[in-house]
Design goal:
The chain has 242 residues and is α+β, with helices and mostly antiparallel strands. The chain has two domains: 78 residues, no CATH class; 149 residues, Yope Regulator, Chain: A, CATH 3.30.1460. Helix content is 41%, strand content 26%. The chain is built from six helices and nine strands. A five-stranded antiparallel β-sheet has the order 5-6-7-9-8. Strands 1-2-3-4 form a four-stranded mixed β-sheet, with helices on one face. The N and C termini lie far apart (66 Å).
């Protein structure tokens, strides 16, 4: 809490922020006799843009009849429910991006992840390369509690029919592909969407304990290598329509 029995000023605004950071606090209360408009705007912006909560309170002395003077505190600025919800959402968003970037950094550093090792770690849920056929990507996928690998079939806008034709061609070789892969695959034609997917999913994601990441990623990379090997003999025939 910072009490300034004067008008708000830049010096005390700086001290409010400095003390909050230095003490590792989550909330700051600044009490003044007269809040200046620029400081009202500044604290409102801080509430919208940070995880901390800032309160600007105006203090006045009031008297009712012959009673002794008493302080009257009026809240000028404070975090709204919407602001707190937005700040929480921003924090969770940043955490997700940070955790996914850490996941991809760890995965790409693995010597067995050779297919994707030339890539730069990203922050999104997918990380992919071309399968060798244009617009057919081999993607790693990671979510909070699940991860996997996939062939993502998408030739772009207006290519819905071509995407389904490619998927159908691959599905005609389903038994052959799954035999080489060594397990059933998830065949998602997705007629309500432009792209189609052939996927393998497994438990464990970036919210899993970090000491489990190595085991999870080992299974994920192994699945990618087996999926690529299983698909390549059939994908080579697609070069005629690439």
């Amino acid at each position: 809490m910072r009490i300034s029995l004067i008008k708000s000023n830049h010096d005390h605004l700086g001290k409010v922020i400095t003390y909050l950071v230095a003490m590792g606090a989550k909330a700051a209360v600044w009490i003044v006799t007269e809040p200046r408009p620029e400081h009202v705007s500044a604290l409102s912006w801080l509430n919208d843009s940070s995880d901390s909560r800032f309160y600007l309170v105006k203090v006045e002395a009031v008297r009712i009849g012959d009673s002794p003077p008493a302080p009257l505190l009026t809240l000028i600025v404070g975090p709204s429910e919407e602001t707190e919800a937005l700040a929480k959402s921003k924090k969770e968003f940043a955490e997700r991006y940070g955790e996914r970037h850490k996941w991809w950094s760890r995965l790409l550093a693995r010597p067995d992840a050779k297919l994707h090792q030339h890539l730069t770690p990203g922050s999104y849920s997918r990380l992919g390369i071309s399968s060798g056929t244009r617009s057919l990507n081999l993607n790693y996928v990671v979510l909070q509690d699940e991860c996997g690998v996939e062939l993502y079939i998408d030739r772009g806008e207006g290519a819905e029919a071509e995407n389904k034709s490619i998927f159908d061609h691959l599905e005609e070789h389903k038994s052959e592909i799954e035999h080489r892969f060594g397990a059933p695959l998830q065949w998602q034609r997705r007629d309500d969407r432009r792209a189609s997917v052939i996927r393998v999913s497994m438990q464990g994601g970036y919210r899993s304990p970090e000491d489990e990441w190595d085991d999870i990623q080992s299974r994920q990379v192994d699945a990618m290598n087996r999926l690529n090997s299983a698909l390549q003999p059939v994908l080579k025939n697609l070069k005629l329509v690439a």
